[in-house]
Design brief:
The protein is of the alpha+beta class. It contains 11 helices and 10 strands. The protein binds 3,4-dihydroxyphenylalanine.
């Protein structure tokens, strides 16, 4: 009898079905009032005393295994039914779609593009891996020019000379090489500098370059454009130009906007002066025009360049530049409602 019971246990263990009727038939066959277990327990009375312990244990095992099996089969049937009901119901409301958010760098970049496109600037791009000519030489920075020290460069290869561009001014040159004036373009992009990473500076960041070339372009045009930009972008209409030096512009200036002292909490933003530097600019040096095959006797132009991170930090009061690159969703989710 022990063998018979063990065989039944094995049968029960492998039994499978997805039909409710079959589960019920299975249950009746084993556990019903006239079922196999009933029969076996009757037969048990006649078992030899020496075998009673083993057979008794096996019978209990068979009863437990069978009722667990019935329970399991019923549960999985119910689950399957629930899933079917859920997905089969075409009137059910759809799952909520998680709202995505744009990266603050994209938001600011798009806004800058929007502001300049209103006054006729197109968007242009250039390669991140540049050659010496476009990043330096054509921009009036010859090989041993001391101004090259202003930027710590990631050099890739000596021959052919390749490097990671240190500024988007390289796109100016490419654009002038491939387009005739009048030129009105802005070039947003990623740039690379071999700098120590801190809360204010990073080795990878973003810039927007601007270039305007036509006949009779003057410094006054540059100033008006900058004024328009700062009004649109920051809602501030007081700017000042401080004389400065860039090899690719002459004269050159740095642009400060009057930010005021209201937001000056820790004296880090404007160092207590109210003024904030936001970009470099100037009249394109005639040498740069010549290098890009534009006649400096006929054409003049202005250029400017600014850092996107810096502007985003200002606009959203972001205290540390590293937050842009950490991809922490708790940071990124805060820009959800901004398109
Ligand atoms: N290329 C400069 C930099 O990376 C920024 C700049 C300054 C661009 C003056 C210009 C300019 O076009 O006229 O710091």
């Amino acid at each position: 009898m022990l063998k018979k019971v063990q065989k039944l246990i094995a049968d029960v263990e492998v039994f499978k079905t997805t039909s409710r009727d079959e589960i019920e038939a299975f249950r009746i066959k084993y556990l019903g009032s006239k079922g196999l277990l009933k029969e076996l327990f009757n037969e048990f009375k006649t078992v030899d005393a020496s075998m009673k312990k083993d057979v008794g244990q096996a019978l209990n095992n068979l009863r437990n295994t069978t009722s667990t099996k019935v329970q399991e089969l019923n549960d999985s049937l119910e689950n399957a039914q629930e899933i079917k009901n859920f997905y089969g119901d075409l009137t059910r409301p759809s799952e909520p779609i998680e709202l995505g958010s744009r990266h603050p760098i994209s938001i600011v970049r798009n806004r800058i593009i929007e502001v300049f496109s209103k006054i006729g600037f197109t968007v242009s791009e250039g390669p991140e891996i540049e050659d010496d000519w476009h990043n330096f030489t054509a921009l009036n920075l010859p090989e041993y020019h001391p101004a090259r020290d202003m930027q710590d460069t990631f050099f890739i290869e000596k021959d052919p000379d390749l490097l990671l561009r240190t500024h988007t001014s390289s796109v100016q040159v490419r654009y002038m090489e491939n387009n005739e004036p009048p030129i009105r373009t802005i070039s947003p992009g990623r740039v690379f500098r071999n700098e120590d990473i801190s809360s204010r500076s990073h080795c990878i960041f973003h810039q927007v370059e601007g270039l305007y070339i036509d006949t009779d372009v003057s410094f006054a045009d540059l100033k008006q454009t900058l004024l328009y930009f700062t009004k649109e972008m920051f809602g501030k209409s007081k700017i000042r130009l401080r004389p400065s030096y860039f090899p690719f512009t002459e004269p050159s200036a740095e642009v400060d906007i009057y930010w005021g002292l209201e937001t000056e909490i820790d004296y880090k933003i404007t160092k207590g002066t109210g003024w904030l530097e936001i970009m470099g600019c100037g009249m394109v040096d005639p040498n740069v025009l010549k290098n890009a095959n534009i006649d400096p006797e006929k054409y003049t132009g202005y250029a400017f360049g600014m850092g996107i991170e810096r502007i985003a930090m200002l606009l959203y009061q972001i205290p540390d530049i590293r937050m842009f690159y950490e991809n922490d969703v708790r940071f990124l989710e805060q820009f959800k409602s901004i398109i």
